[in-house]
Amino acid sequence: MPSRSGRTDLADLTPPIALGPLDGRYRPVVAPLVDHLSEAALNRARLHVEVEWLIHLTTGGVLPGAPTLSTAEVAYLRGVVDSFGSAEIAELGEIERETLHDVKAVEYFLKRRLAAAPDVLGETVLPDVTEIVHIFCTSEDINNLSYALTVRSAVGQVWLPAAHTVADAVADLARVNAAVPMLARTHGQPATPVTLGKELAVLAHRLRRQMRRIESAEFLGKINGATGTYGAHAISVPGADWEAVAREFVTGLGLTWNPLTTQIESHDWQAELYADVARFNRVLHNLATDVWTYISLGYFKQRLSAQGSTGSSTMPHKVNPIRFENAEANLEISCALLDTLASTLVTSRLQRDLTDSTTQRNIGVAFGHSLLALDNVRRGLAGLDVDAEAMARDLDGNWEVLGEAVQSAMRAAAVAGAEGMADPYERLKELTRGRRVDRAAMREFIGGLGLPDDVAHRLLDLTPGSYTGLAQRLVDHLA
């Protein structure tokens, strides 16, 4: 319909137009997270937890008088979760508009399926177990387990594989270029040469270290009632070992049981995980800025076909490093959200407040921007060619970087008993500071130092391109 300005109101168009870029422009990249961190995925996980709790309580004699479910009945219940799709999402939405409570809506949805079970199974006890659904549970019992399951699956099945792909690409690039010499820059100034491979290996090593922390993350859960005391459980069925029942249930979901909570599981594991992912993001950001700088120095050339873009709207000669710039921006957004999640989720007023409810709905957004950055870095790296000649030219224009080697060799010679090696740092500073030194000037200086013959020959044979120490060998530390 027309808006007051006479324009079409975009909010009324069908299909709905996405407000944010993750569900709009960048949807194809982040779509795999929808199966884990969307509202629909959260509701499916809630349904899964409710179903498994029902099955858990109707086996092993936990609830006196509760029927034992048959194999077909258990399969039917789990099928309710497996078949959760667009029609079920719409139905659940209708229920929630009546209940105005998301977890209660899941409870009612499951009860409908219990009532309908005879249509599928014939004679069945399922319509008679509706009061066991959600028994002894507060909403947070369902929510904390659901979030743990969905975040775990998103990290393990989507985010970590993408992170491994990028880290492996950096490591491969490091190995291929392990011996390619490159002028280092400390404080932006020419410094002791390295190899391109060693510098990339440092970044791959850092990324993998953070990934190992993320891979070892604990995902905690609890199911202990309204204030964490098993109050309703113990008063209703005093003969059961409710801590053992809860532990078995939580660990059966593949989670770590948290024995001490308030109404909520304390979310500390989430804070720890998000801090580690944010730190990974920041290392990846460092990679993006370094590669961007190497591109600007001419050390990397970009293949336009691989970048898949027009370089500039007005300057046709340009191939802009947009993949790395896009990654930077998305990593910064992701880190901002992850930092907020990590800092706010660890606090809940007294036994419970609802600040976490809204906050946790942004977990998918935080991971989405990180995943989008990973995709851009992957594509950006795939479109790079190394220009070893450009690096060699830079090295040949900076012979003064050998000053470190010369003064260190002089110190070592003095320790070994050579005469005339006094004040090596000061003598090199006078030669090199604030000025460019070419090959001839450096060789003349070395030749006039009176060094022992073997030391002099080593230094005279040295060039900026060969002064890379153990850099090539260090790349072997990459697993």
UniProtKB/TrEMBL annotation:
PROSITE patterns: FUMARATE_LYASES. One of its GO terms (molecular function) is N6-(1,2-dicarboxyethyl)AMP AMP-lyase (fumarate-forming) activity. It comes from the Bacteria. One of its GO terms (biological process) is IMP biosynthetic process. Pathway: Purine metabolism; IMP biosynthesis via de novo pathway; 5-amino-1-(5-phospho-D-ribosyl)imidazole-4-carboxamide from 5-amino-1-(5-phospho-D-ribosyl)imidazole-4-carboxylate: step 2/2; Purine metabolism; AMP biosynthesis via de novo pathway; AMP from IMP: step 2/2. Its EC number is 4.3.2.2. The keyword Lyase applies. NCBIfam families: PRK09285.1. This is Adenylosuccinate lyase. It comes from Occultella aeris. The lineage of its organism: Bacteria, Bacillati, Actinomycetota, Actinomycetes, Micrococcales.
